[in-house]
Amino acid sequence: MSDRRRLAGRRRVVVKVGSAVLAERPETIGELTTDIVEAMAGRRGRRVVLVSSGAIAIGMARLGMARRPRAMPALQAAAAAGQGELIQRWGEAFARHERVAAQVLLSHADLASRTRANNARATLTKLLALGAVPVINENDAVAVDEIRFGDNDELAAMVTPLCDGDLLVLLSDVEGVLDHEGKRVAQASGVDELVPFVRGETSSVGRGGMGSKLESARRGTLAGADVVIASARGPRVLSSLLEGEDVGTLITAQERRLSGRKHWIAYTLRPRGVALVDEGAKVAVVEKGRSVLPVGVLGIRGQFEIGDMIAVVDREGEEIARGLARLSSHDAARRCGQRGDEGPLIHRDDLVVTA
User: Fold this and answer.
1) Of the ranges 205-214, 252-261, 300-309, which one carries the lowest mean pLDDT score?
2) Structural domains in the chain, sorted by start
3) What's the pTM?
4) Residue 61 CB: number of other CB atoms within 10 A?
5) C-alpha angle 100/115/121, rounded to 5°?
6) The pLDDT of residue 146 is above 60
7) Of 18, 107, 117, 260, whose CB count within 10 A is highest?
């Protein structure tokens, strides 16, 4: 079976739609709603989780803002003004198909906490079991820089393992990843094949761009999901790709997927500090799957406590791994380069190689 044809068997689909296309084409909500309902009807037991941007863009229009503001209070005000109308639009669109749209607002802090993330997982699981379509957005009205997602592409990638998604669809205003000649790349076995084609443009109403989508695609494939980057313009985009048609750019799931916990460590938590390691420790971690021991640590940066996530870098400053600290920054700095039986800085069970 081809990679395209196997998409027909996907049962948990996460669909993200961006601000730019919603602002430019308000009819997208109606088209995509019809498409999602058709996709759910096309296979018994298939469920869809929708990650929708657009609250800030709608709020900007309602408040008379000509450009996306940079100041956090103005962004929060726009989000507060637009979020209610955004979910109302989705709710009315799904109601026409006798489906329930259920609003779920998340901040990064919700998913960085294992307890709160598990609560969110339970809520999503129940909503899907009841046949509702969760409509997820960042809780922009209260989020600040320290606790917000980079953008909703990142949020969609974090939601994918949370709901056991096996397909992540990133919809925007472009037909997929375009090569240097401007032609759509149909398929790639990994994100690294597509990185050379990334350009620097971003939307005037959203935060994302193709670089953001590829990073989210990398995280999605490591969670065991196939990822498709496609255009939201026009009807039946989702149904077409689920029928095996050549739509968008398909990036196939990685065979060696990360467990939910290790995906959470690597791609949800944010580093509280850095451990600089020597070449021997680098080889032990990357090639042999060993723990990070104090004897191989050259230095510590930042302030962290036991249980915080820290990044591991080599002598050149390149990140090679991330993991949960079993020592505080004070104790880790005190034990740098020392041998002993007091335990590792990061145990291999809490360590994810990112090199």
Assistant:
1) 205-214
2) 5-257 (3.40.1160.10), 271-353 (2.30.130.10)
3) 0.89
4) 16
5) 25
6) no
7) 18
